[in-house]
Amino acid sequence: MALISCTECGKEVSDKAASCPNCGVPILGASAVSLNPQSHAKVTRTGAKWEGIGFILIIVGMIMAMASQGGFGGLLIAVGFVVFIIGRFK
Ligand SMILES: [Zn+2]
Questions:
Q1: Each residue of 2-42: pLDDT tens digit?
Q2: What is the Å distance from ligand 1's center to 58 Cα?
Q3: Cα–Cα distance measured from residue 3 to residue 79, given in angstroms and rounded to the nearest whole number
C-alpha cells in the first residue's frame, strides 16, 4: 500500500482507495479498472448523440438548400458539419 497525493486537493491518499476521503475525487489506480469501462461507454454514447444531431442538421440543411437555393440551408449544413465533427472527437 502506498500513499499518493490527490490530484484535486493535494492531500495524501491510499492508492487502494476508490476516491479521496477529503474531496471525493476518484483516485486513479485501484479504481481505474472498474471506473473506466463505464465512463468510456458514456463518452461514446454522448459523442454518438452529437454525431446524430450533426447528421440530421446536414440533411435538413441540404433539403432547405435545395428548396430555397442556398442561403439558410448552407449555414445549417456548416453548423451540422461542425456538430458532427465535435461528436466524432467527443
Ligand atoms: Zn482530494
A1: 888 888 899 998 888 888 999 998 887 644 444 455 555 55
A2: 44
A3: 48
- Provide the residue type at 58 as one letter: I
Rounded Cα gap, residues 41 and 35, in angstroms: 10
CA–centroid distance, residue 73 to ligand 1 (Å) = 49
C-alpha cell at 26: 476518484
The predicted model scores a pTM of 0.41
Ligand 1 centroid – CA 3 distance (Å): 12
List the shell of residues around ion ligand 1, using CB closer than 5 Å.
6, 8-9, 20, 22-23
